[in-house]
Amino acid sequence: MEAAPPRVTPDRLMQLTGGYAPPLIVETALRLGVFDALDPGAKNIDQLLAATGASARGIGMLLNALVSLDLLIKTSDERFELTEESARFLVRGKPTFHGAFFLMTSALQLPRWARLTEIVITGRPAERINREDDGTRFFLGFVEDIFPIHLPGAQSLAEALNVAGAKGPMSVLDLAAGSGVWSIALAKQSQHVQVTAVDWSAVIPVTKRVTTREGVVDRYRLLKAICSTPISVAATRLRRPATSCTAKAKSEAEPCSKRRSSRWRREVRSRSPTSWLMRTAADPRWL
Fold it and tell me: Which residue range is the domain that position 50 belongs to?
């Protein structure tokens, strides 16, 4: 006798309908400072009311929702405390803070996802964030907060490249640097590392602030990009002479055509793209 086929139910589909809720719950808790308030130790609802300024009904629902997500623990005496996960990754100010992407949910993510049908029909993005006018506001909102999210990967890259074993000068070009996390991880591995960081004019101050905080700013040259194409696009065109300057220092007055010299073309032909990028850090006029 053949076994009956498994019964198909709508349960999984119904679970998908609430997929937007967990990020919003975490975002609300972050904005109200719930995790920060609990970092010193467990608290009851009255104590959390005072710490967050929320309503009794609202904070009660939020705390229970966080318990259901395994981000809080509710004790037998009606107090709430952090889990190991939330204590490590959701408390502001800790070097392991990963809450930045949750804080983008309501204002940055959902409004754009709400236009998905229109985007699929037209093929046009909700916003062109790879251009300076539109992208600056977008990236400034979180570029520094995502530093700890990218740091482990950047440290792994530094180890894979054996930067700590460098015996002589090592030049690094950090294009679209943002917080500088990828080059900072390299710079911290060796005093031989010298970095040229390039980004939009409004973002470079963030790069300077973070490199100063991390103690490596003295080995950085910070350049404000002036681009006729998005930085991410320009980066893919480095194998051939550009039709316009990819980036230049604001103080640089030399015309683009002069910088596209025969020396530039010979270097592009003779070196791999990676080697060429490393070389340009020593002479940014080549950009």
Answer: 11-109
Which residues contact residue 154 at a Cβ distance below 8 angstroms, ignoring those fewer than 6 apart? Answer: 181, 182, 184, 185, 186
Residue pLDDT, tens place only, 111-136: 989 999 999 999 998 877 777 877 88
Count of CB atoms situated within 10 Å of the CB of 80: 22
Neighbours of 116 (CB within 10 A): 10
pLDDT digits (tens, 9 = 90+) for 160-177: 999 999 999 999 999 999
221 vs 197: CA distance, rounded Å: 6
Is residue 163 domain-shared with residue 272, that is, in the same domain? Answer: yes
| pLDDT over threshold 80, residue 257 | no
User: For position 80, which CATH number holds?
Assistant: 1.10.10.10
d(CA 28, CA 38): 15
215 backbone φψ class: left, alpha, beta (φ>0; ψ -120 to 50) = left
Q: Could you tell me the CATH number of the domain that includes residue 158?
A: 3.40.50
Domain boundary among 58, 78, 109: 109
DSSP-assigned beta bridge partners for residue 15? none
Rounded to 5 degrees, φ, ψ at 150 are -90, -15
Residue 134, in any domain of the structure: no
Amino acid at residue number 7: R
The model's pTM is 0.69
Same domain? 180 vs 82: no
